[in-house]
Specification:
With 760 residues, the chain is an alpha/beta fold. The chain is built from 32 helices and 33 strands. 35% of the residues lie in helices and 17% in strands. The chain binds ligand MGD (2 copies) and molybdenum atom (MO). InterPro entries: Asp_de-COase-like_dom_sf (IPR009010), MopB_CT_YdeP (IPR037951), MoPterin_dinucl-bd_dom (IPR006657), Mopterin_OxRdtase (IPR006656), Mopterin_OxRdtse_a_bac (IPR010046), Prok_molybdopt-oxidoreductase (IPR050123), YdeP_MopB (IPR041953).
Length: 760
Amino acid sequence: MRARMSKPKVPGIETFSGPAGGWPALGAVARVLKDQMAVGREAAALRKVNQPAGFDCPGCAWPDPAHTSSFEFCENGAKAVAWEATGKRATPALFADHTVSQLWEWTDHALEDAGRLTEPMAYDAGSDRYLAIGWDEAFRRIGEALRALPSPDMAEFYTSGRTSNEAAFLYQLMVREFGTNNFPDCSNLCHEATSVALPQSIGVGKGTVTLDDFALCDALFSFGHNPGTNHPRMLSTLRELSLRGVPIIAVNPLRERGLERFASPQHPSDMLGGQGTPIAQTYHQVRIGGDVAFLKGMMKWLLANNALDHAFIAEHTTGIEALCADLDATPWSAIEAESGLPRADIEAAAQVYARAERVIVCYGMGMTQHRFGTRNVHQMANLLLLRGNIGKPGAGIAPIRGHSNVQGDRTVGITEKPTQALADAIKRRYGFEFPVTHGHDAVAAVQAIRDGRSKALVCLGGNLAVALSDPQATFAAMRKLDLAVHVATKLNRSHLITAKQSFLLPCLGRTEVDLKAGGPQFVTVEDSMSMVHASQGGLKPASPRLKSEPAIVAGIARALLPDSQVDWDHLVADYDRIRDGIEAVFPIFKDFNQRVRQPGGFRLYVGASVRDWGGPGARARFIVSPGLNEDLRVQGDGVLTLTTVRSHDQYNTTIYGYSDRYRGVEGRRDVVFVNADDLRERGLAPGDRIDIVSCLPPNEAGGVREVRGFTAVAYELPRGSAAMYFPEGNALVSLDCHDAASGTPGYKSIPVRIRAAVDG
Ligand SMILES: Nc1nc2c(c(=O)[nH]1)N[C@H]1C(S)=C(S)[C@@H](COP(=O)(O)OP(=O)(O)OC[C@H]3O[C@@H](n4cnc5c(=O)[nH]c(N)nc54)[C@H](O)[C@@H]3O)O[C@H]1N2
Ligand SMILES: Nc1nc2c(c(=O)[nH]1)N[C@H]1C(S)=C(S)[C@@H](COP(=O)(O)OP(=O)(O)OC[C@H]3O[C@@H](n4cnc5c(=O)[nH]c(N)nc54)[C@H](O)[C@@H]3O)O[C@H]1N2
Ligand SMILES: [Mo]
């Protein structure tokens, strides 16, 4: 007992006191370049990231400053590029040397670290190996297997958000001509709560600000995102705000270093001083899931202090009475209990908000990935609308998207809920009709596979089985498939869950030259702020046998749809033709080919940015959500609310390494962050091995959802809140634990209990 009181050292756990960025960030880039063994190739690639004539960084969806002239340093962008431009190769020899069952034993890190896939491969059940196959043979067999299904609705077509607009548009065209709207999408696991809630509130499912607005705002609120790790280039913007004296208010259960201090490698003064520039003026460590309480508290203060913009409310909105009634009916005692913060702190935040004329609210997964994700988004929109902070310069809502083109994929038609307008436009341009019915999102797709209602899965990128909740159910379901097709750059665990027929189709990455009959091609992407721009790689492809994503889609389409109305070969010979098609189907892309050739690209129309709330006569809406989400939270004796987060050394399911520098974790990921008092109360101490047991209903086999043998780390977060890494925590979430309105899984508020590990 005594030894414990003197704070024993937990291996790999050491408080990190530096700022985000700084020298360690430079060191980390040098290490990843060395480790990936192709310094020349990668360093050349790095100079072209996010330059007007280069490729779009596959790291995140934060926009680029227009006309970038010098290399904008970003540690995690550099890792993403190095990981793609690596010198390592996963050739057919790797698959000859290892059965799929053997590869299954590898870590997620080791699988991807094998390097770039080089040849199309097909699974051979007899030898339990992937064997090389010709492209045409692969396409033929895939087309045949899909056509053999009793109904097109028995196939699922997943998209991960790195896919370009051009590939995504062709993909949805193929799938719709085939006859289904089953479009599970990584967006369903990410910002779906935004895509559902914002149209209801402000008439459009996208953010309303651009980078220019950040230069004009006079207060910024950051809810539930971790820019230091997940969109590091945003730190440069936040640093500028801080130096301008703009208050930045962080609302986050975990103290994230990037929201506290940042040393910009571009600014010697930051680097020499050692401590960098302060970012957040105030840091509110809200309880996990306590944001609606925090937001309602702020709004309650605004109401009580007559700090509303009455003229804006009268002219532009509906529903204010119901909102006021709800705020009146919400007692401060409940707000304090649910948010875990004292009334005075919430009122102080409201005062900062009320003093400012132009406010931006930014948010990420800490708001969307809950069973009440859409409610969270509604209340942030309400807060902004109360003072007219949408649709004027320097103000607005900024959902920070994840994958670099997750927003664009949606814009060009990846949606399971097509409209009649889309059907009409496709009919006009391509001559075929498709059913305007609702298909499956990500959770529904896996449920359909589980229940035997779907028998084929095609994945345009990603690692669906690992990204989704409930690996027990998801893995078992996917093993029952007749067909699994993965278009990918690197090997991952989803590829090893084999179906009766499984194919691995290796594609070009963003960094590489894409040469077609019409010459070298560029693709386009849309960032978090609706800016569309070109992306063109310059590196020699990782293997001569790779195909571009559009070419792979066209190859499958030809085999799948022998009587297709679409001339697939013609389209992929020159991507301008695909963009012409996008423009024909989606009029907001007017003059697409011309506008995308302007340096920096162009911005798509976002109605709410100019106070068009969804057409003539439409108004923005205050939306009341019931209570403080007590109805959707499991509480009880000893229950902790667990959130799952990204470490600094991963990209979603891609594990670059084992360092979570800013949180003081080195060389491991098997940790759970818990408040020291919560540990003590349970008779546990930092360094103890613990099991985490989900309080959600048992899995389908009747087994308890749990993960075992993790190490407890005492961490500064609110009582009752805990955190661990994703995907390790996914086994604790059931497939049906999702937001009813949007389907977004509840990855960020999992009710759990912890106990000393039972195996000692
Ligand atoms: N390097 C790198 N970059 C990435 C990614 C990556 O994995 N690595 N992933 C990309 C993708 S797809 C996405 S979607 C984005 C994700 O970017 P983020 O949204 O930053 O993702 P998370 O790591 O999930 O971090 C969520 C944050 O929310 C906080 N949080 C958790 N629960 C709550 C809550 O209840 N309330 C509040 N207020 N906060 C909470 C956590 O403490 C954490 O700081 O990043 C993209 N960029
Ligand atoms: N518990 C928990 N679970 C989560 C989350 C969480 O916060 N907590 N976050 C969720 C979120 S926000 C998201 S977006 C999903 C991510 O879900 P996904 O998008 O499905 O997963 P990724 O890990 O990004 O996919 C990695 C794979 O993409 C492939 N890849 C990389 N680049 C390319 C390319 O250019 N083309 C093609 N075709 N393939 C490529 C590689 O083969 C790599 O193995 O995970 C979700 N899951
Ligand atoms: Mo995401």
